[in-house]
């Protein structure tokens, strides 16, 4: 759109291009703050109300080339602003840095709502700059106007509407501080076009006061465990015979996985992680129980049933883990919780001991205290029990089927990647299969929309991750329905020459929805069957420039195809036609306890084991 | 039961909406609401009454404290009783 811009400031910006090192307009101030914050890549889609900022990015890149001649802050343009948001989120999840997206007003900003809410729900740091119509036009239903501060205010960590250009520099800088501090989250800065064009005095430093937030943040960041706190924790642990760590995404956000490993090395507690916590603790470790919850491993869920002590780390007892809070970990006599967010303590489940503070420091303190007091829990019986659970209730599936089993596809990929590839997913069955059957040896290798469950997340998130790690293998495990949501981003992959690998597990529809309809709606597949849909995914990928694009429908060709697919140097697309009736097991149904978990036909259930105790492992 | 909360927040456009929106999004109806200045012109005091149980009250107070614009959340009756 076109808004009337103050000619004076526009003249300033154009008349002294060589002085761009000292920003003179609002738009230049935004770009300079991004550069000062170390932003390496911007994801975004342009439009009328954000043009001054886009122009300032262009001029910044022209004046500040990287040593290799590349742009210092390249703009990556998606097919849709939602794609830009998830690229920024994928970048942030894979790198631990703040992801940055810049979009225009109105539809640009509203298309960004889903990634912003998604990032809020998964505590991912983003800074989103939105263009807005000129201050004089706000509220007039101007072209491409939307009430962004109202809309985003309900789903972001914070939103700023900057109406005074003198505040813009400090506001953008503050947005980065807010996004990455405390419990991370997305921060939106809504900038009217006249504020972008306005002449400003550059200060080069300074942030907004935000007294309330900063004082709470200081309290949390300075919090430390006293000797009394540590003594109480270890006194309770000493009473426990079957203690368990329940680790969530907070361990990854806090970069606390080394501290967690040291703690486990010192005291021997087995670890189960949430979906968001995958990679926080090496899943190949004998003390790892992989994922717990609705689709967690049977052995993790049984360990939760059997444990008598829970240490929750950066985890929030959400409904996919503690569907029935009263019956979660029913044998736990003591629950301890450490989190950076005071609002999470006891929110769902009453806890006996808690600490609000930085996780790494808290774990290091506990480890040091425990070592100094020679605390060494005797857990060999519990370790043997956990090992037995892992053996007896191992993940398994129909290995004799004539149809390609999705689990076999993930296992084949995992044999090549060995838990070292960055995996992103859409949402649904394929997401759960990937979570269950991949190994995760380190944090920030697992990118998934955990809380919001946004279909269409996988492809753009993988693109963002590939920008964060250009040399790493990045694989998007997607579903035929999820990838349709943002399929326009296939072209973004080839436009930027990204070597990422896209796998579509095609079961002709919304598999997870069908699974629920089969279980709870007598098999009436309302709106979830796509078997008559016409899309040829391989042709679609080829049309978007994928030189390697194949369909796999013969089980015998699985190993060779996967090897060829991963060995291809450039972008590659693999559609796998899988058993449409393959289900996600185990499953703890909504409203059910872990004891009522369904394990399917191929994973041993404890109920079955209990009726026939003398049976061998071949009974299934 | 009926609870009165006293909230200090930054005197900025949008701050009141965020507090009111937080209550609304969690299904709480604000029965009364008063906003006024304090001795510090950059800070407003918001006094509201809301019907909710003790557990819900604790949660919403914690959630309100997460709002960036909010300086302080108090439940004067509970403070007096304590």
Automatic annotation (TrEMBL), chain B:
GO terms for biological process: isoleucine biosynthetic process; L-valine biosynthetic process. Its EC number is 2.2.1.6. Pathway: Amino-acid biosynthesis; L-isoleucine biosynthesis; L-isoleucine from 2-oxobutanoate: step 1/4; Amino-acid biosynthesis; L-valine biosynthesis; L-valine from pyruvate: step 1/4. Residues 4-78 form the ACT domain. GO terms for cellular component: cytosol. The keyword Amino-acid biosynthesis applies. Keywords: Amino-acid biosynthesis, Branched-chain amino acid biosynthesis, Transferase. It is an enzyme of class 2 (transferase). One of its GO terms (molecular function) is acetolactate synthase regulator activity. It catalyses: 2 pyruvate + H(+) = (2S)-2-acetolactate + CO2. InterPro entries: Acetalactate_synth_ssu (IPR004789), ACT-like_dom_sf (IPR045865), ACT_dom (IPR002912), AHAS_ACT (IPR039557), AHAS_small-like_ACT (IPR054480). It comes from the Bacteria. CDD domains: ACT_AHAS. Dimer of large and small chains. Belongs to the acetolactate synthase small subunit family. Catalyzes the conversion of 2 pyruvate molecules into acetolactate in the first common step of the biosynthetic pathway of the branched-amino acids such as leucine, isoleucine, and valine. This is Acetolactate synthase small subunit. It comes from Rhodanobacter sp. FW102-FHT14D07.
């Amino acid at each position: 759109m076109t808004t009337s811009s103050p000619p004076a400031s526009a003249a300033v910006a154009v008349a002294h291009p060589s002085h761009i090192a000292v920003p003179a307009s609002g738009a230049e101030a935004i770009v300079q703050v991004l550069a000062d914050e170390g932003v390496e890549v911007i994801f975004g889609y342009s439009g009328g109300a954000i043009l001054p900022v886009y122009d300032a990015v262009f001029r910044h890149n022209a004046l500040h080339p990287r040593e290799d001649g590349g742009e210092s802050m390249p703009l990556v343009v998606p097919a849709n602003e939602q794609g830009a948001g998830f690229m920024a989120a994928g970048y942030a999840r894979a790198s631990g840095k703040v992801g940055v997206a810049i979009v225009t007003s109105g539809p640009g900003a509203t298309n960004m709502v889903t990634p912003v809410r998604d990032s809020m729900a998964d505590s991912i740091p983003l800074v989103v700059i939105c263009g807005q119509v000129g201050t004089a036009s706000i509220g007039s239903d101007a072209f491409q106007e939307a009430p962004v501060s109202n809309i985003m205010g309900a789903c972001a960590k914070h939103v700023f509407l900057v109406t005074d250009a003198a505040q813009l520099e400090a506001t953008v800088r503050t947005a980065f501080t807010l996004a990455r501090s405390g419990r991370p989250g997305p921060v939106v800065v809504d900038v009217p076009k006249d504020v972008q064009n306005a002449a400003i005095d550059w200060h080069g430093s300074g942030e907004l006061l935000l007294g309330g937030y900063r004082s709470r943040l200081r309290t949390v960041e300075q919090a430390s465990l006293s000797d009394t706190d540590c003594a109480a924790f270890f006194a309770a642990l000493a009473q426990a015979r079957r203690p368990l760590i329940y680790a969530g995404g907070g361990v990854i956000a806090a970069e606390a996985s080394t501290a967690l490993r040291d703690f486990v090395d010192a005291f021997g507690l087995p670890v189960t992680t949430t979906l968001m916590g995958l990679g926080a603790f090496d899943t190949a470790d004998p003390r790892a129980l992989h994922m717990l919850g609705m689709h967690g491993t049977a052995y993790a869920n049984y360990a939760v049933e059997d444990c008598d002590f829970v240490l929750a780390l950066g985890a929030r007892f959400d409904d996919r883990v503690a569907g029935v809070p009263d019956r979660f970990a029913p044998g736990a006599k003591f629950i301890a919780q450490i989190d950076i967010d005071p609002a999470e303590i006891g929110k769902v489940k009453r806890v006996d001991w808690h600490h609000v503070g930085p996780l790494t420091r808290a774990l290091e303190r506990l480890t040091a205290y425990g070592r100094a007091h020679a605390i060494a829990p005797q857990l060999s019986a519990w370790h043997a029990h956990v090992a037995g659970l892992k053996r007896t209730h191992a993940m398994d599936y129909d290995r004799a089927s004539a149809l390609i089993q999705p689990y076999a596809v993930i296992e084949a990929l995992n044999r090549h990647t060995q838990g070292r590839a960055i995996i992103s997913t859409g949402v649904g069955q394929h997401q759960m299969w990937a979570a269950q059957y991949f190994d995760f040896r380190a944090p920030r290798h697992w990118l998934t929309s955990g809380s919001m469950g946004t279909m269409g997340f996988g492809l753009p998130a993988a693109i963002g991750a590939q920008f964060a790690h250009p040399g790493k293998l990045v694989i998007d495990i997607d579903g035929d329905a999820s990838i349709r949501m943002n399929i326009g981003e296939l072209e973004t992959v080839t436009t930027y020459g990204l070597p990422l690998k896209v796998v579509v597990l095609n079961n002709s529809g919304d598999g997870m929805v069908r699974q629920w309809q089969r279980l709870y709606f007598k098999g009436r597949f309302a709106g979830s069957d796509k078997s008559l849909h016409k899309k040829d995914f391989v042709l679609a990928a080829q049309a978007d420039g994928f030189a390697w694009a194949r369909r796999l429908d013969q089980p015998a060709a699985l190993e060779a195809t996967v090897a060829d697919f991963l060995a291809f140097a450039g972008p590659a697309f693999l559609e796998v036609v899988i058993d449409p009736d393959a289900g996600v097991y185990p499953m703890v149904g909504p409203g059910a306890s872990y004891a009522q978990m369904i394990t399917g036909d191929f994973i041993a259930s404890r109920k079955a084991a209990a009726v026939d105790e003398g049976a061998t492992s071949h009974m299934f | 039961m009926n609870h009165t909360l006293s909230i200090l927040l930054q005197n900025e456009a949008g701050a009141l909406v965020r507090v009111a929106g937080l209550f609304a999004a969690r299904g709480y109806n604000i029965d009364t609401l008063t906003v006024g200045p304090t001795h510090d012109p950059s800070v407003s005091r918001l006094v509201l009454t809301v019907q909710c149980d003790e557990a819900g009250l604790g949660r919403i107070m914690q959630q309100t404290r997460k709002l960036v614009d909010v300086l302080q959340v108090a439940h004067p009756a509970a403070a007096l009783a304590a």
